[in-house]
Every structure is written in C-alpha cells, then in structure tokens.
Amino acid sequence: MTTRTASGREIVRNTRPASQRARSWAWHLTMLAVLAIVLYPLLWVIAASLKGNADIITDTGLWPETVTWEHFRSAFDGLAGIPLWRFFWNSFVIAALSVVGVVASCSMTAYALGRLRFPGRTLMLGIVIATLLLPGQVMLIPQYLIFSEMELTNSYVPLVIGKFLALDAFFVFLYIQFMRGIPRELDQAATIDGAGHFRIFFSILLPLLRPAVITSSIFTFIWSWNDFLGPLIYLYDMEKFPLPRLLQSYSNSEGVTNWGGMMAMTLLSLVPVVLFFLVFQKFLIRGIATSGVKG
Questions:
Q1: Residues 94 and 164 in one domain
Q2: Is residue 12, in this structure, part of any structural domain at all?
Q3: pTM of the full predicted structure?
Q4: Domain boundary at 42, 68, 94, which?
Q5: Is residue 40 domain-shared with residue 164, that is, in the same domain?
Q6: 273 and 197 inside one domain
C-alpha cells in the first residue's frame, strides 16, 4: 500500500497480515537456530585451539578464560623436524593429481559412453553406474594386496591411480548428464568438416563442459584434501604425510593426545579448502543446476 504526502512523496507501507509476519519471523528464527547448531562444532574447534590442553578437557565453557596462541606457534613449526609447508605441499600434490585425473579420465569416458554408438555401450554404462552401489571399503583389502605386491605402498600412486582410470562413476555420470544437453548437431557438423573424435572432444565438447569440469574439480579437490583413510593405509613415511594423516600423528602410541595442537592444525588445514570453495562456488552451483535439468 502506498500513500502520498503533502509534498507529493510516496510512502510504501507494509500491509502484510499479522499471521504472515509471524510465520516469517518463525521461519527466520528456526533458520538461525539451525545455523547455530551447524556452526557450533566449528566454534568449538576454534575455542579449543586457543585453550591449554588441560582446559580443553576440564573447561565446560565454550570460550577460554585465558587465550593462548602456543598451539598455532607449534603448528607452524611443523612436526618431528618437518616444516609445516611440506605437509601442505603433500596434500596439494595429491589433490592436484586427483583433479587432473578425474577431469581427464571421466570426461573422456563420458564422451565414449554418452556420445558414441558401439556394441555393448549400454551394458558398459550400466556396469559403470552400478559401481556407485559398491562401497569403497569392499575393495580396500584386494587393492592393498595388489599395490603391496607391486611395491607401490608408501607412495602417492595408490591414492591417485584410480583417478586416472575413471573409477569415480559419479563424475562419469555427471559428465554424461551434462553432455545430453549439448546438441548432437555440433558433432555431426564437425564430422562433416573432417574432424575425428579427439578433435570433436577437445575442440568442441570440452569447452562446453566447463561448468561440469569445475564442479568435478571442486568435489575432487575437497575429497582428496580431506581423505584420511587412503594415506593412513598406504603411507608410513612422515615426510610424505598429507594434512589429514598428520593430524593422527598428534596422538602417540601411549595414548597421549595434543588436543590443542590437533585443533590448531585442523583449522589451518581448512583454510585452503574454504578459499578454494569460495572462489569457485558460483561455478559449482551453476554446474550442479545445469547438469540436473538437462538430458
């Protein structure tokens, strides 16, 4: 509702019913409560990193009475004489290789299964999709035995080789769904001009797959950066530890845990992931929305 004053100025008044305003207030308060519940673990980690080790266990309050930065200073010094940047570099190498492997292998596999016509294509696509139902823990022991026989343990090969073999069926399916929204007339026109499959894929389809590429890159980077089970099984040389594997080193064989140092290192390890997500979040949302409505 608008009213006009003596000077001719219009004033917009809120004429929503009281029941509608009450529902709006209730909805916003509920969302704030949910946000507080979701963020509480992060706030607890931040507060614990600023407490002494004894206060983390005994202090019932969230925020410390006495703030200490000792845990962050010790975290920047590294562990066992190994500087902190080394563990960050190890995590970055694993995550970067995983991203390259997923984008290269899954996109080309999706092109073969989603755009080409050959005998057995439907069966192969069904097998790939069926692997989504197979828990990774089922293949853990056989894979370890294979890599152990090949003397590839204590290296990054077991952690990244599967990324280059298109074993992430979720991303293969993501690329296939996105390709279904790209007109096949582009492939046919390129074929008439004499382009082969590699030229069609790299010059035509891959540039159009940019949202899907960025989406798969973000997920792969975050999952590889936070992976703990793989490095725990295959790596035993501390100089090769990524950050999640390093966190386990804060608990020694005698059961004594440096909780404050672990919390400080946890916060430091989250920084690259948060920055990576903030930079590419608009591409992530666009990629998920586009791949979900096309096809």
A1: yes
A2: no
A3: 0.81
A4: 68
A5: no
A6: yes
Query: What tokens does 163 get?
Result: 């990324």
- Residues 192-246 have pLDDT tens digits of 888 888 888 888 888 888 888 988 988 899 899 989 899 999 998 889 999 888 8
Asked whether residue 61 falls in the same domain as residue 205, the answer is no
Residue 14 lies in a domain: no
Which pair of structure tokens corresponds to residue 148?
Answer: 């152990």
CB 178 within 8 A of CB 290: yes
More confident residue, 109 or 63: 109
HEC per residue, the chain: CEEECCCCCEEECCCCCHHHHHHHHHHHHHHHHHHHHHHHHHHHHHHHHCCCHHHHHHCCCCCCCCCCCHHHHHHHCCECCECHHHHHHHHHHHHHHHHHHHHHHHHHHHHHHHHCCCCCHHHHHHHHHHHHHCCHHHHHHHHHHHHHHCCCCCCCHHHHHHHHHCCCHHHHHHHHHHHCCCCCHHHHHHHHCCCCHHHHHHHHHHHHCHHHHHHHHHHHHHHHHCCCHHHHHHCCCHHHCCHHHHHHCCECCCCCECHHHHHHHHHHHHHHHHHHHHHHHHHHHHHHHHHHHCC
Domain harbouring 276, CATH code: 1.10.3720.10
Phi, psi for residue 236 in degrees, rounded to 5: -135, 0
Is the pLDDT score of 1 beyond 70?
no
Residue 58 sits in which domain range? 19-68
Pair (137, 169) in one structural domain: yes
- pLDDT at residue number 294: 45
